[in-house]
Write a structure and sequence with these properties.
The protein is an alpha/beta fold. It has 3 helices and 8 strands, in the order βαβααββββββ.
């Protein structure tokens, strides 16, 4: 029904162009800055893939091998254009029946957000609150706001790519 994008790094947005061809017709919700950056990243990724595949296919042709297609190209990125749905920090939006989200600053890159998702099902006294985030930035970064802690969560999902490492203070 919907995609919620926390930030525009390629490892988070890079497979979005595959969704429409696989039946997705919902919206992709993100902050305005994340939408802008994701469009830049995806356009660049499509150009790189098309260029790399063209070079590889020239080699394959010389060897008598079948050509290969890029994971996606510009047409697939362009197909996302009407799917983007900008949501400002601290606004609440219903993205599917009984499911609302609120984005709050994760301090990772410009526009990055953590997500508070409230799920209300019939018979529930109160909605279940799930918080998830991609990456959370450090405090006291010169150009980014400090990450904001969630207000409340019943369940938290957090990316932990570097969770096994000590970082310099």
């Amino acid at each position: 029904d919907a995609v919620v994008l926390t930030h525009a790094h390629l490892d988070h947005c890079g497979r979005l162009p595959l969704l429409p061809s696989r039946g997705f017709n919902g919206k992709i919700h993100a902050t305005p800055a994340t939408v802008d950056f994701a469009q830049l990243v995806l356009n660049d990724a499509a150009r790189i893939q098309e260029s790399d595949r063209a070079k590889e296919n020239r080699r394959r042709q010389r060897r008598g091998q079948r050509p290969i297609a890029p994971l996606y190209g510009q047409a697939e990125v362009d197909a996302l254009e009407d799917r983007w749905s900008e949501l400002l920090y601290e606004q609440t939006r219903e993205i599917a029946p009984g499911i609302s989200i609120r984005l709050f600053d994760s301090g990772h890159i410009l526009g990055s957000a953590s997500v508070e998702m409230s799920i209300r099902e019939s018979g529930m006294a109160a909605p279940r609150v799930i918080v998830f985030s991609g990456d959370i930035g450090p405090r006291n970064s010169p150009i980014l706001r400090d990450p904001i802690a969630p207000r409340h969560a019943d369940v938290v999902f957090e990316e932990s790519t570097y969770g096994d490492r000590d970082h310099r203070s």
